[in-house]
Amino acid sequence: MSDLPVVVIGAGPQGLAAAAHLLERGIEPLVVETGDGPAAAVTEWGHVRLFSEWPELVDSAGARLLESTGWTAPTEGFPTGSQWVSSYLAPLAAALGEHVRYGVRVTGVGRRGRDRLVDAGRGEQPFTVHVTDASGAESRIDARAVIDASGTWAQPNPAGADGLPALGECAASAFVSYRIPNFADAEQFAGEHTVVIGSGHSAATAIIELSRVAKRHSGTRITWVLRRGAVGNAFGGGEADQLPARGALGTRAQRSVQAGIVDVVTGFRVEQIETTTSGAVLVAEDGRALAAANRVVVLTGFRPDLSFLSEMRLELDVALQAPVRIAAEVDPNFHSCGSVQATGAKDLAQPEQDFYLIGAKSYGRAPTFLAMTGYEQVRSVVAELAGDHEAAARVELVLPDTGVCGGAGLFDEPTGSANGSCCAPAKTLIQIGLSRQP
User: Fold this and answer.
1) What is the pLDDT of residues 18-33, one digit of tens each?
2) What three-state secondary structure class fits 76?
3) In this structure, which of 138, 177, 236, 413 has its CB flanked by the most CB atoms within 10 Å?
4) Which homologous superfamily is 6-154+302-393 in?
5) 24 CA to centre of own chain
């Protein structure tokens, strides 16, 4: 199978980085992307500014490939998604050239001549990646290995607290969105009532931008809905966060709440969304109802699409749907400290030999993924596929601490009574292998 390519699913940051690392190792990559261009998901949230600085957003192998074309790495500032694409991801995709195919949707991954039940000779057979193109034509790609970097963007979690759409949620689609709004047209929120559901960084970003609208336009109402029984660590780690811009998100959102610009409703688990002539009315499991909203912004996280992997032998955590060896490290139900360890090929290995989930998809439903996490995963996985086991086992990244003590319960506990354990001492952030030029 050495003559076959490694198929990479998804031309996002990690998928493109995987292709660059494979080329450096002398292995042919083939990146297949559903969208019509690179980083299609990032492009959709291009108006959002990242809390990671440029050096944390550029993969080392990607930088080396681009430098051969005369590209210079951005070294300062916090780009928007659009700037990340235009200044790095799109040039990287262009440098990869024919190794990236667009408008290709993966519909299934299997082993040639072996369904999921068959053991005999399974690892000796190439993967078969079934795809459809933009016209609907079907084809099959044989591969020596498969790296799934398709992310979770296409699978947003619903408003319903039971993980399923709330009653009436689909019917209320005219009022409901699952993305951080683009506030370039702030007038659409001026003088209106917007409800934001969620407790992560996306929700904090939406709250900050809505607060700006409210300061300029009287009559603008903002309601922030949390499922947990207390605000807890919804405001993040503040100054204790080793990514200062990430910590600042929560701090700024907290100021808006303290100033009375935002109403916070805790312990509110959405059961129903009623469509009325005045807007969408959210009803909780305990019967409480909010004032009718003109817009409902649901930012409750994402989940992986595993539908096209039904013939793969996967070992995933029953709750997170992440590889079992990393689940306990990132699971908000158990992980009490802000620091998360880097993960590599050994942690991501599956019973299906030479198949890997990387990037945001490797974290399943966990919300703590960083770009630099994915780049370290890519480096290790590609080294393993190349037979460089020593490099694959080596850890070349220490991740920044969030400064948040969470523990079981605070993330989704009805009363907010469980406080978890105290964080360990903060770790020092180390930048590894990032190319910088003056």
Assistant:
1) 999 999 999 999 999 9
2) coil
3) 236
4) FAD/NAD(P)-binding domain (3.50.50.60)
5) 26
